[in-house]
Fold these 4 entries.
Entry 1:
Amino acid sequence: MSLSIFQRPSKLRVPFLLTLGLGYLAPSPGLHASERPLMVYGWPVSESDPDKMILNQDAIMGTYVCPALTRLNLQTSSSELVLLDKLQDGKTSWSFGLKPGLKWWSGGALATADLAAFLTAELPALVKKVGSDSWELPGFHVEDSGKIVKVVWDKAPEFGPYILNRSSFYRRTNAGVECVGNLKPQKNEAGLGFAGIVAGKDRLFVLNQELPLPTAKAGETFVSFRFGNEMHPQTFERQIEEELSCPSSLDLPIMTIIAWNPEGPYTKDEQFRKAMTYILPRGALLRAGAGSLGDLISAPILRTHPGYKKSLLVLPYDLKKADSILNQLGLVRSERDGYRRTPKGDVLELSIATDKSRDSSLLRKVLDDSFRALGMKLKMVGKDEKADGMLAGIAGSWPENDLAPLLHSKRSSDVWPWTYHFNEIDQAMSRYNLSLTQAKPDFSLLENIHDLVYKKEPFSVLVQHKSCMQYGKGMAAPKVISVKSPDWIRAVFER
């Protein structure tokens, strides 16, 4: 659940790295993939359930394995068709036409009946999820002419057809999830294999949670994704100002944060939460813990996203500012012992939950020193204990950068041991998600969310991580990859 900034981040409530070599996957003798697979080391898989992993729409799954019918393209700031060659929004009816020649992994042709069944089954759950259970779902029925599939609504819905950006297109069979991507799962002893045609060639990708050295064999073809702490031997003590050399780094929506309990005795106050951010030496943590392989951001939104409001500067490391805020809140340092106390005389002690099984000793020391500098006590507790905050790694949604799973009053308790209740933010997130269901989203609505989150400070974002891509024999690293491109992962693998 939580992590050290010097560790590979993990998604909340699930292990970050999949236990590979899944036995349920049967070999695919019909696929004549290369005898030398492309090993993919350290790819940040954020689900442990195989079906959920396939459907989670990360860059590999969404591009190669289980694509959606439509997708969001941040380069054009618009939605576009993927498996469809026609989409018409008639307000009270939506019409869809499939691209010709699409096939399920099992080899059968994709038919309009499959699309009709998918829309009938998935639309209600998708509207409930994306709308955080706050959008009305009008009655509807699905018509299939054999060429065109039409969703006919009893009345025009408030959301648009590009809500389909948010779901992989799939069906469930006795063998599990089945998709129409170019790659399909294939059992492999070295990890989780995906075999099929990529750029006109038979390919086999094998995802492995390990890093390539020392496990990589001589001459092995591989791509590895490494975070800053993984770029040097464990015995190497890096100087705090030293930047790591990485010829090909990649922005990822993966962040280390402290989420604050909105119901805590101190952390329920937004000014107190801001004071906590002021005392955290995020720049030093980025340099020391990640070799500057990352970014400092003022909310859990990637700076590269068009909805990131660049005028909202990262709060500085400022002990004087934090001291002033705490004094104004009546939390004054005692001249007797130097500890900061409440008006009732209680020592100000905060508890932060973390996964104690992970080695976060250096980060814990940094946090402890930061709190001591202002006369506060810090208690690190287990991830399942009641706390004022939680040190955690989050994997955000991309390309939407939807914060509703983390912050919405109807969804945040699925992630945190508390519930956030910010009505204004709830409404802003709903407006943004409605916009994302249209052909041309309004990213100024995400800027508005950024502004509201900046004021409330429910999270202290420590670092947004970047990954360094390294390549094995015969593969040259790309110079620049823009994650705003919906096909950015192709630039990684199709070398």
Entry 2:
Amino acid sequence: MKVILATVIGLIVGNGVNLAIINFGMPTQVEAGVDQYEAMLEMMKSFTTMDYMIPLAAHVFGILVGLIIARLICKTSNVPIYIIGGLHMFATVINIFIIPAPSWFIVVDLILPILIILYFLRTKRNK
């Protein structure tokens, strides 16, 4: 039961942190929707390196908080870490194909969460 609870709460809280950072941190908001995709791409053309730090922080802190919550709830199993980490990485890869970004952002956006996930996989405690 702890595995399921840790997974669900970790996913919800992690995604909430991710969305909160994006929604409150981005200087210009584009309404979500299929018809707004071109407007979002046009806005991103003017992004500087610093503008990419907010989505990067959102991704890193989202996975970090989600995994911290999962590990606090379930200290003896890595299943929640695999599920949360796997879903996060799946979403990151999909994001890379949908939203164009500079190469450095893609590399960092893949490597940092993997390092965080690997750290949490090593923190399992046996009873």
Entry 3:
Amino acid sequence: MHNLLKLTRRPDITFYPSGRILITARIANILNITPGDSINIAIIDGESLLHVIPKGLGRRRAVCFPSKKGGRSLCCNSVALCQQIFNISKVSPQKTSFLAGDILSLNGKPFIPIITGFPIISPPPLK
């Protein structure tokens, strides 16, 4: 038997070389991300952990906003964050998606592990 779909689970977070980051509603709900919050990725013991930085004053990077009106999926922009993820996962800068693990709590703050060892790289478009 040969399965046509190698992976049936949809990715949780997608990074683009332009700096665009798409976050699914599942992740936004788990971390309670609201528009105006920022995201960041902490590296702890070689694991990439996504976490939220609540709304604050001043200019910030990776500020989340809704991807469409009425939806819970979010977008943000950070070229630096995308480049770091491409370096960590050892993939060439192209649209790359990742699955996320189960929620962790460190010092009372929620974190979501990003499984960078198993990137889902989209194929180039057909010509």
Entry 4:
Amino acid sequence: MSRVKELLDELQIREKEIFTQKVNKSGLSAKDITEVGKELGIKFPASYKEYLRTYQIPTTKVFICFCGDTYTNSFDITFSRTENKYIDSDADEIVIELNWINYDTSSKEAFVKSFIEKNEGTMAWAKSGFFLLGEFRGYQVYLDSKQDIVYSIYHEDLLESEDYDDPKAARECIEEHAHELCDNFEQFLKVICSGKPFDEDEHVFYGDELAEEKPAENQADLSSWLIKIGEASATPIKNQDKIGGFPTYQPEEIPVADPYGGHFLMEIYNHGFADPEIICWQLYCMEMSAASITHILEIRKDAPLYDDSSKLISKRMGLNEYPLFLELYDSKKLDETVSRIGGKVPKSAKNAFKRKKITYLGTITEKLVPNKELNIYHYNDNGIIAFGFDDNGKFYAEAYV
């Protein structure tokens, strides 16, 4: 049974300054919600349906508390309830105002009207399943009604959509640029109603019993390995894990190179990770940066060797050629800040890997290569490339910071 009404009652008791008047009961029935869902082309999650049937909650300002890395470390101020203003903070948690957006539940007609008004300009997003729940400090909060997941996305990132009026492009934009804020709508409601510090990365509340953290799920019960780097090589490195230079093998299709992609970045060999017919995987990226992995090519047995003099493939600029080595390591002692095979899924990649159903394999950090030559997000020390396998067994890699 959902705790929706219990949470809303708790909020009204805790925030008497906000709810100075009694909140009326919702005028919507289960049948009404089904009908407005059909009219808007949205199938609401069960907890949100219950929410709509409970009260007529107005759009209002509420205070929420974060204690994770994504926002706690991004904002250096916190809202002081006693001083009624934002003040400097270096604490492990922050309080911020959320403009909690709600729709008129007094009747079917009122709900549809308010829904269209408050999602004005982003109805393509609503048609793809995403509708607005709130806003805080430049970030907008959306409920993915198809998966019952709550996302936050910086308002400028909404403009990254290839077609602002296309529902498919809207969903692709969210998947690429948004942060998975809460597991579901009920958890988001608890963030608002309980006032408890919420870890926006691990999706747990401070003070609640934490689930046991499990090690990363590796392929084929692999052991953990450190990834180490050798000296920059003046001669081409062949048939070995490496970063920079030219690939050992020529792929079936040569990536088209431009400033935004198609430049050879690295070769990762198949050390029993996948189908033994696969020799290695080649990663290609932007001309001057590894911030965007644009091509991941699977090289299988009988692939021809690549002739460096052919100039068919472009090198990543500003990057020397380095050999990579694997060193067996005790997973219990594995430092999670180093480049490795195994270990735990990095926090910055965890939400995306979960959402895209990627089985984690390993991580390469900005710090691995001397002089920040990888250039992951403007030489950021925390930049990483995390990799693994998707549901179809295809190699996956993406840069994060």
